[in-house]
Amino acid sequence: QCGLGIMDSARLNNIVQITTVVALVAGFAVVIWELQQGKDLAYAAILTDEITRFHDRSLALMGEDPREALAKASLEPDSLNEEDAVTLHGFYSTVTMNWAGIRLTAQVGGIDRIPWETTVKSQVSTYMSSPAGRKWLKHWAKNSELADPEVVRVALRAVEETDRDYFGSSLRALLTKDE
How many angstroms separate the CA atoms of 162 and 164, rounded? Predict the structure, then answer.
């Protein structure tokens, strides 16, 4: 009977050691995962700060009110002038940086209540479906070294799928006098 007690004790000792090793490995995995999460969150914070600075610079370029340039881009694209082009560039740049921020939030933070692709498609059809908007978006996609390739792909596909100037048609509907 004494021999069985030693056997059971050795077996129990092995189980305890294996359980301890498994717990340590799991603990290390959790620590590594938390470090990665911390790194991702720090990266997101740095990128968010950069997006905010870019947004502020774009707003300064855009001026106080981009509405006139946006209306011209849809209703009278041939009458756009240099000031309108600067305003539209600032506005469109702000919109595209917003897309990058939304995608980053979805990737890093897991916050994706409305998929970022839905936001991009909606804003492309609303703001960039005018002739000027389409032209700017295609230029941005081709020439921006900072643009997220996946955002570019979704935006270009959205503008190709948009068969009309949604913003311009909405403005025309609002400006049409009821008879």
Answer: 6
